[in-house]
Amino acid sequence: MVSALIALETNRDRARAPALLGALIDLLGKQDDEELTAAFGEWAAQVLLPRRFRGSVTGPLPRLEEVRAMLAETVQEWTAEWVEQGREQGQRELPCRQAARKFDAAAAERLAAKLKGVEDADRLAQVGDWIIESETSDDLFARFEDWS
């Protein structure tokens, strides 16, 4: 049981957290020790969840099975967030690749700096259109003067 607790505590792979917690809960269930189970539940709610899974626990302390369900739900939310972040990153990288192919690597680097922090897909698509329409990299960057 100690090794399962250490594995959970030192785990850095958020996707594995529900499985590790589930294994520990299963081990606790085999112990048939209500005091130990209650102590672990309190630790999970007061230490593990707030530190690793901010915003997961509000209100009264959950039972261990509820903790397992909360973790699984939290991992699903993270997965959706990671997919969205990847999509946004790809949308920002595509115009840079286009600029490198049409103009040069320096134009791509300069464009990457301009696009840093831009998340609006329509604005990024507009930049892609500008790359197609521009004859030179100077033409491309001149379009950014009125872009706020």
Characterization of the model:
The chain has 148 residues and is an all-alpha fold. α2 (17-31) packs antiparallel against α4, α4 packs across α5 (105-115) and α4 packs parallel to α6. The N and C termini lie far apart (57 Å). The chain is rod-shaped. Helices cover 76% and strands 0% of the residues. The mean pLDDT is 81. It has two domains: 2-79, no CATH class; 81-146, no CATH class. The chain has helices spanning 2-10, 17-31, 34-52, 64-102, 105-115, 121-133, 137-142.
List the helices and strands and how they pair.
Blueprint: H1 2-10, H2 17-31, H3 34-52, H4 64-102, H5 105-115, H6 121-133, H7 137-142
What would you say about this model in short?
The protein is mainly α and 148 residues long.
How many individual β-strands?
0
* Major sheet size, sense and barrel closure: none
Q: In whole angstroms, how far apart are the ends?
A: 57 Å
Structural category is: mainly alpha
Helix content: over 70%
Count of helix runs: 7
- Beta-strand fraction estimate: under 5%
List low-confidence stretches: none
Rounded Rg: 24 Å
Mean pLDDT: 81
Q: What is the number of domains? A: 2
